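Table S2 (continued). Query chain:
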Amino acid sequence: MPIPWLRLIDLALGATSFSRGAQNRAALAEDVDRDARLLALEREQLEAERLRADRALQLERLGQACELEIGRLRLIAAVAVAAVRIARSDSISRLKLRPIGVRANHSR
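Corresponding output:
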């Protein structure tokens, strides 16, 4: 009985391609795992960056609110100083200053 050389060669090549396929599948699985880890890392980095940006915006708004409040307090202080000066000048003008030696004219 003759040996079917072509079938044996096909069988050997098929076995080699099968083992190469298993290796390729393992390499592909490793690539998919690596890509999944990289995507997870990128998501975490983007989330951390978004949180930092939110915090920076919150601090900026807080700073603006503080500046606004400082402006209000300065305005209140200026109004208070002006009120005190007006009150002093009004009370001084109401005093009846007389030269020395002149008595007030009191009618009885």
